[in-house]
Every structure is written in C-alpha cells, then in structure tokens.
Write a structure and sequence with these properties.
Enzyme class: transferase
Largest sheet: 6 strands, parallel
Keywords: Flavoprotein, FMN, Prenyltransferase, Transferase
Distance between the termini: 28 Å
CATH class: Alpha Beta
Number of domains: 1
Helix content: 40-55%
CATH architecture: 3-Layer(aba) Sandwich
Number of helices: 7
Strand content: 15-25%
Structural class: alpha/beta
Protein name: Flavin prenyltransferase UbiX
Low-confidence stretches: none
Family: Belongs to the UbiX/PAD1 family.
Mean pLDDT: 97
Shape: globular
Radius of gyration: 15 Å
Pfam family, one: Flavoprotein
Strand order of the largest sheet: 3-2-1-4-5-6
Length: 185
C-alpha cells in the first residue's frame, strides 16, 4: 500500500511528522513531498532533527520542483494523499487546478483519479477567499479536515492532540481499522 504525504508551509509541521510516523507503523509506503516553506516550518517547529525524523519514516522523498516524479502520474497506484498541514496557498492552488509544483500536482492527480485527498487546512481566522477555496476543493472531491482538537477525549498534551488529528486523517483514507480514538472509547 502506498500513500502520498504533502507538507506545505503552514504552521503545524508536527501534524505531517505524526502522519508519517503512523503510516510507517502501518507498513504503508509513503511518498513525501515538502514545499520549500514546509521545510522551513519543519525546522522552526520540529527542531534541527525534525526533517531527519520525517525522512526516516518515508520510502521516498521527492523534490517539490520535480513535476515529473512518479506521484505526478495517475498511472502510479496510490491509496490517496494527505496534505498535513495544508497552507492556504496550497489549498488555493489545489482548488483552482494550479498544478505548479509537485505537491499541488500530486493532489490534482488524486482528484482526477477519484482517490481520497485529505487536506488539513491550517489558518485562522478564515477569509472569504479561504472559505470559497475550501468549498471548491470539496466540490472537486477533497476532504477538508481542519486540525481541530477532539476536546471530548480529554487530551493531556499537545502531542496527544497532534497524534489524534493525524490518526483521524489516516482513518479517512480507509487503509486499516481506525487508529483514532472515538467518542466513548
């Protein structure tokens, strides 16, 4: 089983790292593409070793500028894609079909192939442009999953919140039995 993970430049790089760790725990082959701003955010938010931890969890790392990479083609079978976090810039490009880098091209491929595309959109407050882009992306087939904590589970740490949100995103791909804790569990 193969999944594409995109990490864009929005705050919340730990979400992408958690998704990568949990997919590795499921023995899922992960293709990773990170925007230049995403690399910067990983360094700022996850420390000096953040990128190396991320790299250790994935099967393949693709340069964001390589629009000819395998994941840019619908002929390459993958189970879907998660963009965690998804910046408003990446959301806008995906919602409007601007396949101008590998992250947005790989997302566009998921949509055209009718595969799951999960976008952990990260911004607050939202402008009307953001909301319209979320609507457009949803109409195209994306699933918008803002990283909102499940407070009813009584999380005790930011890491627990992050892991729960990442698990919820993976669950939406339908790869395995649910990872995320559910209400009443």
């Amino acid at each position: 089983m193969r999944v594409v993970l995109g990490i864009s430049g929005a705050s919340g790089a730990a979400l992408g790292l958690s998704v990568a760790r949990q997919l590795a725990g499921l023995d899922v082959e992960t293709d990773l593409v990170i925007s230049p701003a995403g690399r910067r955010t990983i360094a700022l938010e996850c420390g000096d070793g953040g990128f190396e931890k991320l790299r250790d969890c994935v099967a393949r790392l693709h340069p964001a500028g390589d629009v000819g990479a395998s994941i840019a083609s619908g002929s390459v079978p993958v189970a879907g894609m998660i963009v965690a976090p998804c910046s408003m810039r990446s959301l806008a490009a995906i919602a409007n079909g601007l396949d101008d880098n590998l992250l947005t091209r790989a997302a566009g491929v998921q949509l055209k192939e009718r595969r799951r595309l999960i976008l952990l959109t990260r911004e607050a407050p939202l402008t009307l442009a953001h909301l319209r882009n979320m609507t457009s992306a949803t109409e195209l087939g994306s699933i918008i999953l803002p990283p909102v904590p499940a407070y009813y589970l009584g999380p005790l740490s930011v890491q627990e919140i992050t892991d729960q949100i990442a698990a919820r995103a993976i669950d939406l791909l339908g790869l395995a039995p649910p990872l995320a804790r559910s209400w009443g569990s």
